[in-house]
Amino acid sequence: MAGQGLDEKDRLMPVDAVRGIAMLFIGVSHISFYLINDSATLAGQLRAIGFIATPNFLLMSGLACGYQLAAAPTSATAGRIVDRGLFAFLVGHLLVAGSLVYMVPPGTAFEHVVITDSIGVLLCMAPLLKHAPPARLLWLGAAIYLLCSTFALGWHPVSPLQIVSGALLLSINDGAMPDIGWVSPTLPYMGIFLAGVGMGKLIRLCRHEGRSEWLNVRLAAAGSMAVVVALVVNVARHFAKPVLMSHLAPKNWADVLLTTMNVRHDSPPTLGYALFYGGIGVALVGFLGLLPHKENLLNRLIRPVAVIGRASFVAYVLQQWVIDFVPVWLGFDTWLTPLTAPIYLGLSTLLMYWVTLVWGRHKANRFMTLGLHGGAPPTAVFASAVLLAVAINILALTNAARLTPDKLALFPANPNAGSRKQWPGAADFGRSSTTRTVASPLGTHASYAPSSELN
User: Fold this and answer.
1) What is the C-alpha end-to-end distance of the chain, expressed in Å?
2) How many domains does the chain fold into?
3) What pTM value is reported for the model?
4) What is the domain extent for residue 132?
5) Is residue 2 part of a domain?
């Protein structure tokens, strides 16, 4: 996120551009909620297109973190990153969760896990990663992601402790959780983040040695190969499905195998999902790094996107409020149709670009801090952040059954509440594995649920 990005004098245009691209796709994903009644198929397709945002949001945040640690592997650098991480976790949670008051059950907005929580906590790992070699981080990140994803797809949590742990760490929801928004695939996300840190350190090393072009070619090739492999595996899945259907049961080996090959399964995220969407981000970093520095059409197109990427935290928060909150609050959410939603999305994007442009000109990223200035021991800060995150979310999960409609009701009631019910589970652009039922203005209902292996 821009809150923990590179110093202005040492920024990487490809990283900023990919983060900006992620912001654009977040808007596409969020606007899809308004189209569920008109076309569940179209809404599902837009959500799938928006999946490119989450893994690359995490990957670029890790890359920026790794680049800084490689440039100056000191306690001061780690402390500065932890400071930004705590800002994202504490301030970011309030700013993002507050925008969900009409998208989730009444009174539960601030009890949802949002992407800024995950990134904030992961940034607090910086003190542990100062001297870790790039190759080790790449392999460790890949191993953590693959093992945790596979385990999550096959695990059946039973006890209350298992249910809470599975939700917070692996995004498992077998129906025992009251709402999918309270969960997060924290451990798989950690794998993506660590791989990003390794990439960032590698980019810094090759840049220092004058081998940037060599590395960019390999990043472009590796990312492209990951996308191709994911597509081949996803196609193979359709041929394997008829053979495996006779062996299929919930969360058995056949179900795990088929789901792992699915590029559109994001909760828990699968290997196919990471290879396809993450591969696009890696390839973009490589290809954009190979662009000539002289002025050309592509550079002119990329520059505005990079402006958004430099202030990605602000861009994300702005989209949350402009797309998720304002239409319902002001009562024009029912006007957003397949014809009008693209217009509103375009206007939101222009507003996002203008705000981030002004933000960048005033170098306002420097205000995104809790003011630690390296005064607190980084290890203690890291441990405190992790414990705080766990405590808050365990309290939210264990008290979910006792929630009341008036709890945490900090905003006035929707003046058009009768025209459209709230959308349970719409807490994060990375969530799509639960059924959502909404009421249309005509009183009919439509359900939105991705296809299941058992259908």
Assistant:
1) 38
2) 1
3) 0.81
4) 8-434
5) no
Average pLDDT score over residue span 187-193: 95
Domain membership flag for residue 103: yes
Helix (H, G, I), strand (E, B) or coil at 372: coil
Tokens of 361: 């000109």
* d(C-alpha 30, C-alpha 416), whole Å: 20
> Residues 434, 449: contact at Cβ < 8 Å?
yes
Distance in angstroms (rounded) separating the CA atoms of residues 173 and 313: 28
Strands 436-439 and 445-448: antiparallel
Contact 93, 116 (CB under 8 A): yes
Contact (Cβ atoms closer than 8 angstroms) between residue 226 and residue 282: yes
Q: Is the CB of residue 115 less than 8 Å from the CB of residue 95?
A: no
Tell me the β-bridge partners of 194: none
Tokens of 396: 């939210």
For 140, the token pair is 């460790």
Distances (CA, A) of 203 to 13, 71, 175, 287, 313: 13, 10, 43, 14, 23
The reported pLDDT for the residue numbered 418 is 43
- Please identify which residue in the block is written with the tokens 């796709």: 25
Q: How far apart are CA 45 and CA 25, in angstroms?
A: 12
Q: Please indicate, yes or no, if residue 440 is contained in any of the structural domains.
A: no
Residues 430-450: tens digit of each pLDDT: 333 333 333 322 222 233 233
